[in-house]
Amino acid sequence: MRHTISILLQNEAGALARVAGLFASRGYNIESLTVAATPDDDVSRLTLVVFGDDATVEQIIKQSAKLVDVIEIGELTRKEHVERELLVARVEGDEAAIDACLDRFSARLLQREGPQSVVEYTGSADAVDRFLDALRAAGDVADHARSGIAAIERPLVTA
Fold first, then answer.
1. What is the 3-state secondary structure (H, E, C) of the chain?
2. Same fold? 2-75, 82-152
3. Residue 107: which of 90, 123, 95 has the closest Cα?
4. At what angle do helices 15-25 and 54-65 cross, to 10 degrees?
5. What is the CATH number of domain 2-75?
């Protein structure tokens, strides 16, 4: 099963390595990992996506919570949350076909130089996959970079 885990940790050298090392030491390949600062300069948000059985991932989360750098950890998989991923791609091909693809997905053209275009798209991981497939149908994708998943829990609805 796919698990999305959000971790707030101290923004200190080695903190990321300790958390990622705990997952790796249990034999889990990290499918996606993003880290960025939060409004508090001393805290970073780390978002991990791993595939594994529920019991083992739960145990790793409990062990991660004991690390001195971890402030808060939680699995978002079964909670209401928002996930987004950024794709930046360099594509070559018919300008009209590429523009039609951008329009269909509400993607952005960042730069165009001759037959090459640099484009960006933000969406769920599945939506990024669909956009990339459509972009490949519109032209030759020479290169692309994906940010990995950033996720945050939805606000609680109060009546």
1. CEEEEEEEEECCCCHHHHHHHHHHHCCCCEEEEEEEECCCCCEEEEEEEEECCHHHHHHHHHHHHCCCCEEEEEECCCCCEEEEEEEEEEEECCHHHHHHHHHHHCCEEEEEECCEEEEEEEECHHHHHHHHHHHHHHCEEEEEEECCCEEEECCCCCC
2. yes
3. 123
4. 150
5. 3.30.70.260
CB of 69 closer than 8 Å to CB of 12? yes
Full-model pTM: 0.83
What are 21-64's pLDDT values in tens digits? 887 887 778 889 999 989 999 999 999 998 888 888 888 889 88
Computed over its alpha carbons, how large is the radius of gyration of the chain?
A: 18
The encoded tokens of residue 75 equal: 């699995």
Query: What is the CATH topology of the domain spanning 82-152?
Result: Alpha-Beta Plaits (3.30.70)
Q: Give CA separation, 156 vs 71, 73, 142, 151, 153, in Å.
A: 21, 18, 42, 15, 9
Question: Tell me, what's the pLDDT at 159?
Answer: 63
